[in-house]
# Entry
Amino acid sequence: MIATLENGVKFIDKRHTYVAEGVELGPGTVIYPNCHLEGKTKIGKDVTLEPGSIIRDSIIEDQVTIKAYSYIEDSIIRKSATIGPFARVRPGSDLGEESKIGNFVEVKKSKLGNRVKVSHLSYVGDAEIGEDSNIGCGFITCNYDGKNKHKTLIGKKTFIGSDSQTVAPVEIGDNCFVASGTTITNDMPDGSFAISRGRQVTKEKLAKIFLK
# Structure
């Protein structure tokens, strides 16, 4: 494996990298083996594409990091964002500057503001999320009712706890807090708190019945 430099772009192993005709690559970009860049893709300056990344018809702005085995199609990734590893960004998505899409996260036809974090095991579809919001592990936008797709709107600086869902159409305001394990079915005004999980009931010494 021999690294090569072409027009300011560093290929770690060009023999095992596919770049389609017409793809634009910015200087300072580093491309690892087994990446596929296709269609009308434009890669900015100082971008890092880790092994196995597939990018089609997308704009990747400067200083973005695409971690290993991520798949991006017909979307925009803004400056200094981090995607992956093992993330999927489906068509129509626009991910803001310094945003983070972590491992096993899928984003579809959604707009995320600057510095939004969706770090683990989540599905964000047909949604808009305001800047500086944090989305916990296992979050799901329930966007399909069996016939039509509906939108979830989440405001700025809002915290969504792990294992929560939004049943669209629904809107959560700015500076809200959604407790872990909550299903949101009604709109939340700015600054509000929501919790909908069932109350825990503990029966002492009862476990032995189930552990026989």
